[in-house]
Amino acid sequence: MSEAALIDSPEADTDREVVIEVRDLVTHYGPREILHSVSLEVYAGETLVIMGGSGSGKTTMLNTLLGLVKPTSGYVRLLGQDLNNIDQVARTKLRQKMGVAFQGGALFTSMNVLQNIMLPLREHTKLDETTMQIMARLKMEVVNLSGFDDLMPAELSGGMIKRAAFARAIVMDPRVLFCDEPSAGLDPVVASAIDDLIIDLRDAMGMSIVVVTHELESAFKIADRICVLDQGNILMVGTVDEVKASSNERIQNLLNRRTEEEILDPDEYLRRLTAAKD
Amino acid sequence: MTDRVSHNLEKLGRAAAAGVAEVGFGAVLFVQSVVWTLVGSKRGQPVRLSMVFERCMEVGIAAIPIVTMMSVTIGMMLAIQGIYTLATFGAEQQVTIGVGISVVREFGPLITGILIAGRTGSSLAARIGTMRINQEVDALEVMGVDPVRFLVTPALIGMLVMVPVLTLWADLVMLIGAGWYISVELGISMGAYIDSLTEIIVVDDVLHGLGKSVLFGLLITLVGVINGALVEGGAEGVGRMTTRSVVLAISAIIVTDMIFAFITTR
What we know:
Shape of chain A: globular
Largest interface: A-B, 25 and 16 residues
CATH topology of the domain at 4-97 and 177-185 and 206-274 in chain A: Rossmann fold
Number of strands of chain B: 0
Strand order of the largest sheet of chain A: 6-7-8-3-9-10
Helix content of chain B: over 70%
Number of helices of chain A: 10
Oligomer: heterodimer
Number of domains of chain B: 1
Helix content of chain A: 25-40%
Number of strands of chain A: 10
Strand content of chain A: 15-25%
Number of helices of chain B: 9
Distance between the termini of chain A: 28 Å
Structural class of chain A: alpha/beta
Distance between the termini of chain B: 47 Å
Shape of chain B: globular
Strand content of chain B: under 5%
CATH superfamily of the domain at 4-97 and 177-185 and 206-274 in chain A: P-loop containing nucleotide triphosphate hydrolases
Radius of gyration of chain B: 22 Å
Radius of gyration of chain A: 20 Å
Order of helices and strands of chain A: EEEHEEHEHHHEHEHEEHHH
């Protein structure tokens, strides 16, 4: 069966607002094709988890959705606009409607926590200093980081860095929130707290959330739908139950943490050993 | 044999292409910085004065102690060498002419440029490289904050303002250092030394030095930013590109200095 045929098309979703539309997306790094004609929709108010093993193309997919990597062909429409085909002013405005919590936090090391969280407000609004501080502190409260205004990023624990990154990502009340490996590298208790935070953000603020992760437990807890990526192809998009019940061997291998043995013919094996080129 | 030649030619071609690309990148950064400075406010994204002030403090004020120390030493060294050389002809009294002209036209801007390249240019490359690795540059972009406006333009303005100011300071301190040694060694009073300097040094000499220092400031910033932006491979990559940035900036300063001196003395 071809991999494209394994994609479960979302049913009865035509009446839901599409906030992100990915169509026939192909991305290269140099000569290497990373994403092979990928198509996907993210709906308003849902949490979509993009899941896959190492090298599956998750990070490339996220970077392409964020407009940090230009696709070779196909397009990504965020809130109806193609990030790669709009002028700079429109792109800046569009980016104010999205928030990103990076894997390592990406907090500015020269600024304290409060200044980091206030930065988008300072750059995109004309609010006075006190109002910006109040708004930033409100978001710090949402992520349980109250009282840590003056700490520098180097003084924060892993969980606090992630929470500060979330606070900065949501300070402009974005419509779409992207999270890159939100619970990676955290102990189970803190990871669970971050998962709860993502659920709260979706429920309380009605955000559409795209999470890239390889943590199964976390994915099953927070996802409304899961997109399973494998070697640059989407194997399946479906609910948690649909993914768990999938008969696809590669998906089951991923869920059950089974490694796949690569079967090579002898000629190919010899070619690889000798690094011979065709 | 042919294979090796073609391989080396290919390597040379790639290096040349990469060099041209870097120069082009530098030109783009400069033009973008000028555009942001001029029209940033109209686009609702002004270059923050507070950030320019911060960079001025870092480039200029924080460098005053080291520039002062080096300048006074070099001023005295010039006087020592000048007196020693002129003693051959019994013309020690003429040392003020050599010291005055060479400090203002050459040593002031050159030593300041080299010190700032080593001190601030390297830290700029390391800062931008580390920010790139930590995805801070990506974070700026996805926030809708242009990294050139936020990171490069304030650094460039700070450098273009403070390198000439530091050069003036270095000129002054070098001349004082040289004057102190000359007055002790030759028994010339400081007042007579200063009178002699004011007769020798003309405004054109000072402007020659300041013109060069503006160019040096531009070179240090662009070389630092380009190398920071090209960082790959974690901490090791930051170290490698920081070193490259210092070597390239100092080389660029010395070559530019020679070309500038050649053109302006024709």
